[in-house]
Amino acid sequence: MTRLIFLGPPGAGKGTQAHVLAQYCNIPHISTGEILRSAVAQRTELGQKAQAYMDKGELVPDHLMIELVRDRLSYQDATVGWILDGFPRTVAQAKFLDVLLQEVDQACDYVVNFDVPDEILVDRLLSRGRKDDMEEVVRHRLEVYRQQTAPLIDFYHDRDQLVTVDGNQSVETVNAELQQIIQAHS
Ligand code: AMP
User: Fold this and answer.
1) pLDDT tens-digit profile of 3-27?
2) Nearest C-alpha to atom 5 of ligand 1 is from which residue?
3) The whole model's pTM is what?
4) What is the CATH number of the domain that holds 15?
């Protein structure tokens, strides 16, 4: 059973790596950003509430994210493990996740922190061409990450749950390191 949280700034490669590793481990890749983008595309109530925040590069409010994750983790496929990509992004979300996992008698194995220098992130994000990847929004998303999400590095480090990976390497190299980490911990 593998349960991982992928933590790191936008553009660090979390999504790409989570996709490959989830297939390798045969567990769902749960990307809160993807779930939100699909809610926006389908114009659901959640999507309509989230869109303005996403377009500006702001975080969607915690109470909406908490409901989204509570719901997604209750699906049958999540009972065999998961990779959470892009959640938690605030200390409040991390605390909520603790409580939720306790309720369902699960525990996260560890948190993978993707470390990538800012200049590389900006280049990567600008070449991706997503709607929220315009330069001004990209810089704001990085600022939001530093302020609201980076404190989670200490939060999980203090609990001995953090493993840091150098994300400034080829996709294949990072993937091989992640597979090693999983084997070492299983
Ligand atoms: P991502 O695809 O993970 O980069 O997420 C895209 C956007 O979705 C972010 O810039 C936020 O606006 C929103 N989002 C995704 N996950 C979260 C989260 N855990 N908390 C708040 N907002 C989120």
Assistant:
1) 999 999 999 999 999 999 999 999 9
2) 33
3) 0.96
4) 3.40.50.300
